[in-house]
Specification:
It is a single chain. The protein is an all-alpha fold and 102 residues long. It has one domain. The chain has 2 helices and no strands. Helix 1 packs antiparallel against helix 2.
């Protein structure tokens, strides 16, 4: 049973953790860009307008959110399919064991 669980569940969960980490890092970079723009604007170090900087940060954040949503959706489909396969395998094993006991 543990081998079936490992085969069906561990890989999709690893993929979901990886994509969650990537998305979190990219979102943090987007917020960092916004914060750097705000500090630069306040201290007048930047020649780029705050609007341009905010727009760029918004594009990065939106792109990451879209990518994460699509990837997470596909991983969820894979996980659902594998859970269904696992249920079928368990039912088949249970039926086979029950028939042997009868």
């Amino acid at each position: 049973m543990e081998q079936m669980r490992n085969r069906y569940l561990d890989e999709p969960l690893k993929q979901m953790r990886t994509w969650t980490t990537v998305a979190l890092v990219c979102v943090c970079l987007g917020f960092g860009l916004i914060a750097a723009g705000a500090v630069g604007a306040v201290l007048k170090y930047l020649t780029v307008s705050v609007g341009v900087l905010t727009s760029l940060a918004s594009l990065v954040t939106s792109a990451v959110a879209t990518l994460f949503y699509k990837k997470l959706g596909s991983e969820q489909e894979i996980l659902s399919k594998q859970l269904e396969d696992l249920r079928d395998d368990i039912k088949h094993t249970w039926d086979k064991t029950y028939k042997l006991a009868s």
